């Protein structure tokens, strides 16, 4: 398979994974897709936080079959190398792979030029590693070097457009999460070619810095090392309150932009007024501690007014949805929990959990579904009922999970109501701590 050629096998796999993504995610939001040119060679440059989920976020939601460049050590196994080749992933060799291996980059760069000259798409993570946090790592020089080398080795100017890309996950590995993919304005390599001719190093540094700035605008990048987890808690607890304070209507994208503003201000305050930040951090930790003690979530405390009514309505919804839950649970629980337990037990890096869950899910669920169809086929009249049963299984599994989430929320509401009625002192402490935290943040954070 030539990397620059459209691959029917790749197209089939892409659509299988796209369906799996649809089941896994609650929402998939793609912003500014119109900024991607259709008649130019492009290089996607996304932030990297979540292993294989990051490439999926880009390639599943663009019309391209992007060719990814990845570190060469993952190609050592021949079977793995064949799979990676089929997935249009090319190796990039580093000094740590051995100086004698560096010559192999010539093949990769030549293939890259072929992709770009055919108005195809390359993709490369400027960080060259995933962080597993909402925290962008320092960029390496790989993207500038590759695009400059491609222009240099090409017979004519190919006018490469680099597409800064920001990827945000509501959770890095939980089922039913939300992903937002933001595409930025193209960075034109031509704008740096004249400088590259005169001073290659200066041009490389300038392009690297420009990409960092552009990607930074498209993602949440908490720079604090000492208070990363604390700022994440503040974002979770205070995020929607801050959005409301600005008079902005809720949407996942609006909340994302508001959270950007919030975390940027927290980073600036840590640098300018560390004592004030320490005070807020102590309060958020105390609030988190009391929530954990009573097994509560902040969203429950935020709007407790209609709690009793919502408990009644939720119970009615749970009762009505119980048959769907039982159907979805019975036919999905074994592979779902088996994969989850296996991944948690064997994979140490949390950033890889979603990757292995996706791969194992695509492999195992179809087999289990076919076995289940075989087991009940005698009870189903006709081919169409059998086909309907088979098709319904993944959707029933997702509905069962949503039923379970509603159950968890209802139990949380009952827990809060119980606390309000029978432990008023603790209930009052929770409300007071939330009020204190929000008051301190209102005074420090500008809407």
Description:
By secondary structure, the chain is of the alpha/beta class. It has 15 helices and 8 strands. Strands 1, 2, 3, 4, 5, 6, 7 and 8 form an 8-stranded mixed sheet that branches.
Q: Main traits of this protein?
A:
15 helices; 8 strands; 447 residues; alpha/beta; 61% helix; 8-stranded mixed sheet
How are the SSEs placed, and which strands pair?
Layout: H1 8-24, E1 25-31, E2 42-46, H2 53-59, E3 67-71, H3 78-86, E4 89-92, H4 105-117, E5 121-123, H5 142-153, E6 161-169, E7 177-183, E8 187-188, H6 190-198, H7 200-216, H8 228-245, H9 252-272, H10 274-293, H11 298-302, H12 307-346, H13 353-376, H14 382-422, H15 424-444
Parallel strand pairs: 1-7, 2-5, 2-6, 3-4, 3-5
Antiparallel strand pairs: 6-7, 6-8
Helix pairs in contact: 4-5, 5-7, 6-7, 8-9, 8-10, 9-10, 10-15, 12-13, 12-14, 14-15
Q: Uncertain segments of ≥5 residues (pLDDT<50)?
A: none
Strand percentage lies at 5-15%
Mean pLDDT: 92
Number of strands: 8
SS summary, helix count: 15
Largest sheet: 8 strands, mixed
Shape: globular
The helical percent reads 55-70%
Instruction: Assign the structural class, choosing from mainly alpha, mainly beta, alpha/beta, alpha+beta, or little secondary structure.
Output: alpha/beta
Compressed to H and E, one letter per element, the order equals HEEHEHEHEHEEEHHHHHHHHHH
* Rg, Cα atoms, Å: 25 Å
End-to-end separation: 53 Å
């Amino acid at each position: 398979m030539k990397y620059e050629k459209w691959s029917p096998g790749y197209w089939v796999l892409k659509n299988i994974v796209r369906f799996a993504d649809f089941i896994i995610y609650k929402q998939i939001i793609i912003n500014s897709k119109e900024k991607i040119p259709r008649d130019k060679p492009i290089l996607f440059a996304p932030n990297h936080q979540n292993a294989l989920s990051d490439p999926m976020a880009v390639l599943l939601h663009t019309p391209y079959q992007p060719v990814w460049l990845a570190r060469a050590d993952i190609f050592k196994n021949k079977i793995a190398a064949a799979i990676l080749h089929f997935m249009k992933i090319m190796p990039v060799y580093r000094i740590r792979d051995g100086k004698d291996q560096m010559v192999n980059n010539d093949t990769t760069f030549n293939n890259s030029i072929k992709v770009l000259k055919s108005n195809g798409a390359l993709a490369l993570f400027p960080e060259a590693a995933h962080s597993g946090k909402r925290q962008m790592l320092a960029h390496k020089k790989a993207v500038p070097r590759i695009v400059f080398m491609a222009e240099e080795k090409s017979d004519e100017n190919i006018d490469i457009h680099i597409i800064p890309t920001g990827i945000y996950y509501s959770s890095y590995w939980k089922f039913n999460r939300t992903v937002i993919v933001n595409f930025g304005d193209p960075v034109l390599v031509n704008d740096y070619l004249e400088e590259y001719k005169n001073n290659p190093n200066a041009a490389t540094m300038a392009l690297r810095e420009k990409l960092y700035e552009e990607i930074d605008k498209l993602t949440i990048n908490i720079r604090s090392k000492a208070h990363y987890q604390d700022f994440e808690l503040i974002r979770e607890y205070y995020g929607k309150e801050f959005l409301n304070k600005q008079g902005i209507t809720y949407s996942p994208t609006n909340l994302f932009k508001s959270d950007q503003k919030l975390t940027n201000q927290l980073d600036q305050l840590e640098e300018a007024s560390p004592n004030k930040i320490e005070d807020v951090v102590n309060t958020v930790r105390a609030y988190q501690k009391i929530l954990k003690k009573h097994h509560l979530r902040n969203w429950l405390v935020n709007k407790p007014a209609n709690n009793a009514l919502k408990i009644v309505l939720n119970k009615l919804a749970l009762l009505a949805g119980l048959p769907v839950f039982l159907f979805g649970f019975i036919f999905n629980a074994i592979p779902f929990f088996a994969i989850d337990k296996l991944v948690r037990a064997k994979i140490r890096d949390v950033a890889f959990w979603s990757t292995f869950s996706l791969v194992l899910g695509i492999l195992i669920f179809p087999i289990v579904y076919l076995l289940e169809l075989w087991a009940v086929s005698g009870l189903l009249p006709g081919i169409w009922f059998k086909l309907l049963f088979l098709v319904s299984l993944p959707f029933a599994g997702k509905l069962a999970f949503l039923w379970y989430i509603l159950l968890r929320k209802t139990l949380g509401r009952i827990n809060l109501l119980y606390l309000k009625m029978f432990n008023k002192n603790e209930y009052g402490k929770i409300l007071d701590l939330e009020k204190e935290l929000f008051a301190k943040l209102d005074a420090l954070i500008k809407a």
